[in-house]
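Why does this matter for the project? Reviewers at the last site visit asked to see concrete outputs rather than summary tables. In response, this paragraph embeds two records directly. Each consists of the residue sequence and, immediately after it, the corresponding structure tokens. Nothing has been edited or filtered.
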Amino acid sequence: MSKTNLETGNNIENQKQELIAALKACGAVRYGNFTLASGKKSKYYIDIKKASTDPKTLKLIARQAAFRIKQMDVNIIAGVELGGVPLATAVSMETDLPLLIVRKAIKDYGTKSRFVGDIRPEDRLVMLEDVTTSGGSVRNAIEVVRETGASVKYVISVVDREEGAIENLKEAGTELVPLVSASDLLK
């Protein structure tokens, strides 16, 4: 491994440990009996909305995502409503790349668009996601974006629960880049 790759690897490991400490400190990691959006039961819950509403933790997430985006060929930061919006907004501000918000459904009023922001067929997006489990919700958003002709090669997730999202997104031609995995977070 070259010195640069080694430094990057060490930096990412340091960032991971810093983020784990911040997520725990802001109360984003909770234990008990929870039902996830997928309907699955879980003994732990990762509430990234707690992190998104804590300015220090949100800045940390934005800096770490921006660090990874430097190695990606993208020109738009995207987030799916609701959880991805504050994350994508913070990352957009950190990278100076335009923001695109992907709505879950078309509104019956206003522009009646699935998007807030501009998108063109030649755009290359990275999507921000709070927590990935199977990757189903972000995969739906990727399909909506691809209908415009734009591409989504990467999804950055704050936490991957390691329950199939990496594989499911790979099948869709998208790489999942988790800032932290559940196994790291729960150690």
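We now turn to the second protein, recorded in exactly the same manner.
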Amino acid sequence: MRTDSDGRMFSDWTDHDGMPLPGHREIEREELSRLFGRLVWARLFVLPVLAGIALWMASVERTPWRRAVLLGVVPFTVVFFVGEWVRYRRHGFVARAVPLNLALAALAHLVVCFCTGGLDSPLVYVVLPIAILTAVFVRAPWHLLTIAAQAAALWGFAALGASGAVSLNPTAFGGGARLGGPPAYLWVHVLVLTTVLVMVGFAGRSMRRAFEATVHRALAAQQESLRAHAERAEELIALSGEIAHELKNPLASVKGLAGLLATSVPDGKGTERLAVLRREVDRMQSILDEFLNFSRPLVPLALGETDVGALCAEVAALHEGMAREHGAEIVVRAGSVPVRCDPRKVKQVLINLVQNALDVTPRGGVVELEAAPAGGGAAIRVLDRGRGLDPALADAVFTPGVTSKPSGSGLGLTIARSLARQHGGDLALRPRAGGGTVAELSLPARPSETGGRAA
């Protein structure tokens, strides 16, 4: 076991390559939180019983020191138990709370045993569940130190009882040195109790190791399954990309032949049908281009200082003709916003977003491009007044193949988000107040240059 920078307890689970297995921290934290919550609630039910017994014993006790200790332990225990319950309700689980609670429980238990008869105390056997919980949830070597301290205290109780130097038997149990028989009984009793204590500690550690091994095997099997699935997916994407690439050449031939036929066919139905054929070939080529972009691995970033405000103006100029065809207008609201990025890829994302916005903008509508500094980087927004984001799709629009367009491929937004995240940023869609959609591209101040090259 080890602790992270916050003192939380985590297991050193790694796969066969020595890499940490993802998920084990979350599993451990979830299970510890669930168990700790149950313990916090259970203590509130036993608290009145224990406090009542302690107060009764203090009320009849004649020895001042024992009465003082009992009257001190009761309010401390009540305040601690209730405080932990309130803290858990407000702030949830904190991993360091488990060893802290168990250490205080062990200390308080030994103090109460000392005040209620030492080795003859009816509460002495509570040492066993505390030991097993410590062995299960407290990392080495602290669980060994806790169990060793418990065993040492038990032998100390036996020595005090055998010597009769201190009256361990409280007034409520008749007073005197002790309740049991001859000193030999005490030594046999403490030997058996210590043996059971060690066995319980060993059993607790064995349970913890079994739990860790089970989760480790499950996570390793999951990782292996995901690795095999990823390899298979890469093979299928590569194969699909090859097929798409091979289809582009025949489509180009079909488009060229259709153009040649159009020059020799008189105006009429034949010309219209050839025009439809050429448009459909163009659409198929566009889909194949998007699929090829999706199937290819992302090439490294060509990073350089770029004014994304100027980039927005350039994209708007490229789409003036398309906007005129849709009866719409493109408005750019962006000053100079320098940021380090790959301008070609950012431009590709903006082209996709502007085309999507124009497709849904009604005649007479306006598509707006905004760019502003944000967190040292930049935030670029494309706003439209279309029908808005379909709530049934939500974030699924970034999933390959998901689209609301009758003729869409469902790959444009997937590629756009991949390019944004390659920069260390993101792409998000959200409803626009008053109707429409806001597509926001965020770019960080210093994009990751892993695998990239400086421009």
